[in-house]
Write a structure and sequence with these properties.
Layout lengths: L1 E2 L2 E3 L26 E2 L8 E6 L2 E8 L4 E4 L13 E5 L9 E10 L13 E5 L24 E6 L15 E8 L1 H4 L15 E4 L14 E4 L2 E9 L9 E5 H14 L1
Antiparallel strand pairs: 1-2, 2-14, 3-11, 4-5, 4-7, 5-6, 6-9, 7-8, 8-9, 10-11, 10-13, 11-12, 12-15, 13-14, 14-15
Main location: secreted
GO molecular function: serine-type endopeptidase activity
Protein name: Trypsin alpha-4
Length: 258
């Protein structure tokens, strides 16, 4: 994610913690407490790459549209350096490597902390769906507290390391509603959590740097986009995600017009 807290942002380094918010600790990176997995189990997962290196995750929405985090693209990278790899367990080989024709970040991203941390990407050529490339539906409502969820990605495994795991990782988590996440149960406080956010938390498990933009899935639908958090698997600090149900209309509209 930008994470940490920053935003587990693009692994290439867009660190955008909002002002007057929690000061970020040193970025730490990895899917914490997860296991190696295969793309056939999570065929919507993609690797968003810059200049040949994994930068962020994302999810297949349609043959030509990818959903990711706004902070992954907020530095305004040139289209020529961006690629999307779909259909591979490994970010650096296999599957289909596609050029990017256009992208759009939410117009309100950056106006209210990390709220509205969502973006869409249009590929230069449509994907061909298969057992390893499939779209995932967008949530119509946020899941309840403690609902089972899973996050996937290729985030780094060592704090401060630039070495990425080549194989896709997955971690099982529990949903924490925005209301609960902002309560005294956890450490963020209401000022740091905005509308359009949802959290997940399981002790010793988390998404992290390099996982930004990737999918939080619950009940077989996309419920969150990896956004930010305080540390990686820090006690009482859930991972924070863009709430897909709250942002669904924006994604649907811009997927048609980008």
């Amino acid at each position: 994610m930008l994470r940490y807290v920053i935003v587990l942002t693009a692994f290439v380094g867009v660190f955008g913690a909002p002002t007057n918010e929690i000061e970020p600790p040193q970025l730490d990176g990895r899917i914490v407490g997860g296991v190696s997995t295969s793309i056939s189990a999570y065929p919507w997962q993609i690797s968003l790459q810059r200049s040949g290196s994994h930068s962020c995750g994302g999810s297949v929405y349609s043959e030509s549209i990818i959903v990711t985090a706004a902070h992954c693209l907020s530095s305004g990278p040139e289209l020529s350096i961006l690629k999307v790899r779909a259909g591979s367990t490994y970010w650096n080989s296999g599957g289909i490597l596609s050029a990017v024709a256009a992208y759009k970040i939410h117009e309100l991203y950056g106006t209210n902390g990390m709220a509205y941390d969502i973006a869409v990407i249009r590929l230069a050529a449509p994907l061909k769906f298969s057992t390893t490339i499939k779209p995932i539906s967008l949530a119509t409502q946020a899941p309840p507290d403690n609902a089972a969820a899973v996050v996937t990605g290729w985030g780094t495994k060592l704090s401060g390391s630039a070495t990425l795991p080549t194989q896709l990782q997955a971690v099982n988590l529990a949903i924490v509603s925005l209301e609960t996440c902002a309560s005294n149960t956890y450490g963020y406080g209401s000022n740091n959590l905005k509308e359009t956010m949802i959290c997940s938390y399981t002790e010793g498990k988390d998404s992290c740097q390099g996982d930004s933009g990737g999918p939080l899935v619950s009940g077989g639908v996309l419920v969150g986009v990896v956004s930010w958090g305080y540390g990686c698997a820090f006690a009482n600090y859930p991972g924070v995600y863009a709430d897909v149900a709250a942002l669904r209309e924006w994604v649907e509209t811009n997927a048609e017009t980008i």
